[in-house]
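Entry 12.
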Amino acid sequence: MGPLVAGVLAQHGVRVGLVGRSVESARAGARRAVEHARSDCILSSITCLDYESAQSVLSSADWVIECAAEDIAVKRSVLDVAARFSRRTAVVSSTTSSMPLGVLADGRSLEFRRRFLGVHFFNPPTKMLLCELAPTSDTSPAVASHMASFLSQRLGRVVVHVRNVPGYAGNRVGFRVMNMAALLAEHLGVAVVDQACGPWTGRAMPPLATLDLVGLDVYCAIMASLRRSTSQDISDVLSVPRYVQDLVRAGRLGAKAAGLGGIYRRSTTGVEEVWEVGEGRYAPAIRPVSPFVRCAVSLIRNGRVQRAFELLMDDGSREADVARRFLATYVAYSYACIGTVTDQALGISGIDLAMVHGFGWAPPSLLLGLMGGAGAIIQLCSRDGIACPAHLAAAAPTLWHPSYGRYFRAIGD
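Predicted 3D structure (tokens):
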């Protein structure tokens, strides 16, 4: 993430010092930034450094961004350097969303803690505009206000103010729901779940394919953090399924694992394969034939989104049932986060913005309306033993512009 954030800053005319374990690793990061920005002119704004040569840059920087691995010891060691060499007026931020910021700031001076906060970019930041801003109880309000303005006005980010809770808004909702899909795949298989909950339901990619893109190790780390810290989860289903844990232990982390793959992989002959959960092996990925999904996708292709969701609510097939459970959980959990993750005054709008601009998913308030309103969602949740938050019971569907059809892609039949 560090090189890509550096690329975004450079694209907006900000001079950046990109610090790596070595100058060569920093240069490799700069090349990644160029690939994502599709412009080599940003290199003139990026200086590549190692930790030994970073002191001069840190002492003059206005903003120090920690983007180290999701390991508390590693992050604290990087922040030790930032605390030692950064200017007293420099903002220091962490890109983590899974680790408590208080642990990272613990033992540091009040002067440091007042200029320290969480600034969470989404991957890839060249496409996903969401930036979650998480001040701690010690962060100066002036620092938080300044960063909100800089992120939105200078960098063109969609800023959502969140509380200092693991997962913040986007990952807390997104990974909770994708974990449900991974659990369903234990019994139904990967292909069935990804087809039933595919892009036609209002997301850029099917949920299990998304986990592969993110990285199964990152997914496991985020879920572990949520299990340790979340007491208000509405269904108590936060355990990563065993087959995913087995894949991670084998180094099959997803798209970043090259030939090893993850839930999906590309064979040496170029054939797409999928992990057969019950058999513990890969097999050619064959999309199951689902008349319901085929009909829903056809309706989406013809712009009849509302009719596709009426079909979803009425159809008796296994795939329709999976999609209803998946989407009802998404909507209900989103409303459960109001007042605990985002300020209550924002209502559902903060969660809507997080899911649209961080994940490219249809906003939960829109799905609430498409699925028949709060009563229909509550009925689905009650059937599955999911407690419904008070904010959901009082929710009114949001009236969205007719362009909402852009969230639903005719893929999956």
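Annotation: Residues 202 and 362 are 5 Å apart (CA to CA). The chain has two domains: 2-161, 170-407.
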